[in-house]
């Protein structure tokens, strides 16, 4: 009998507590508008059938009374791709009734989206606040991409045949993708590749990578987190690796946020209208390889934007190879932070032949040398040509601009770029007072008659990838 008596008494006791707790609300209808932490929630790109990150909306009651909101709901109701949690409450109808906000206080609404299909334009909905006699609205917007998750339980995704990826599906790459010898991976215009933290794209001996981006639809390599705070971070994924005798041709492509964006060993790389930003160590790391680059922009690399060592064959025309790295925490390679490092040795006693040509380009580092050379001509054949470039080099004895290998050099001047400091924008456009204006050599301009944006170059072209 004690148990039978005690349970009703406990229920009555807790009911009285709940009732007394709610008595301190003297809730009334809203006579003033609610205010919001933002007028619209615009999400970063989300992927089909994958729940997005959670976005938070704060709702403020600046009225001098506790307010009861009859309902907070989604405009599209239960059919919406969005989901809302209002002050800890949610349900399948996406409508929460009788929402209380204390006077001069706030509540939080958590918003996620799980889209079932992609949309040609951002998917929209709205949170509707029914205040009795009127409503207030906060709009929701999210670009939605069809996505294919590439993940193998073995830890490696192996491509054993010729493969083409296109913009019909974004690729969310959870672990390494390896293109096996004799095969080609072709990535067409507008394709977006999102890599998990330690994932790489590896092109093996005898394999080929081809990216066919266009000016309006770039191929993009980046980390898998799409929120704005991740968009500009460095080291969010592994990078692209070209093994011995691999080949890559990359056109109208963006590679950002990698540990080392592109690394190659005794392999071949062609770059055209390609941008490489925010690398944890190197933008391009080449060991005795061949690179032909036109209209290529590299910036923000903790060690060096372009590190060419152990010899090789290199040709850079109308390139903006700069390094405005801002040291962050422990990621500070004080001895490096070059823009371009050039050497004919591996640093372990091995030397190889080196041929390098830089023309109509900008080689500039904010804190170190735009060009640092460690070249021993007594150990291997070395052919160097630097013609019509802007270069700063005050720490490298080898970069002596009085040498015949330097022709028409703008030495140790700031190129005065638009905004190269921000990881989020990497704006390497020239400004109206840049010393790089109208300094291009027409012989080399003929190799790149259009700049990285598609703008026509005049006979008196500007240095770098961008025409003013």
- The radius of gyration is 29 Å
Backbone structural class: mainly beta
* Estimated share of beta-strand residues: 35-45%
- In helices, the fraction of residues equals under 10%
Q: How would you characterize the overall build of this protein?
A:
The chain has 468 residues and is mostly beta strands. 6% of the residues lie in helices and 45% in strands. It contains three helices and 38 strands. The chain has a 25-stranded parallel sheet that branches. The protein has a five-stranded mixed sheet with strand order 2-10-9-5-7, with no helix packed on it. A four-stranded antiparallel sheet has the order 1-4-8-6, with no helix packed on it. A hairpin with a 7-residue loop joins strand 37 and strand 38 (427-430). The N and C termini lie far apart (91 Å).
Concise summary:
The protein has 468 residues and is mainly β. It has 3 helices and 38 strands.
Describe the secondary structure blueprint for this structure.
Layout: H1 2-23, E1 35-36, E2 40-42, E3 46-47, E4 55-61, E5 67-74, E6 82-86, E7 95-101, E8 105-113, E9 123-130, E10 135-142, E11 144-145, E12 147-150, E13 156-159, E14 163-165, E15 170-173, E16 176-179, E17 184-188, E18 192-195, E19 200-203, E20 208-212, E21 219-223, H2 228-231, E22 239-242, E23 247-256, E24 262-265, E25 268-279, E26 282-301, E27 304-317, E28 320-323, E29 338-343, E30 354-359, E31 362-365, E32 371-374, E33 382-387, E34 390-391, E35 406-407, E36 410-411, E37 417-419, E38 427-430, H3 442-445
Parallel strand pairs: 2-10, 3-11, 12-15, 13-16, 14-17, 15-18, 16-19, 17-20, 18-21, 19-22, 20-23, 21-23, 22-24, 23-25, 24-26, 25-26, 26-27, 26-28, 27-29, 27-30, 28-31, 29-32, 30-33, 31-34, 33-35, 34-36
Antiparallel strand pairs: 1-4, 4-8, 5-7, 5-9, 6-8, 9-10, 37-38
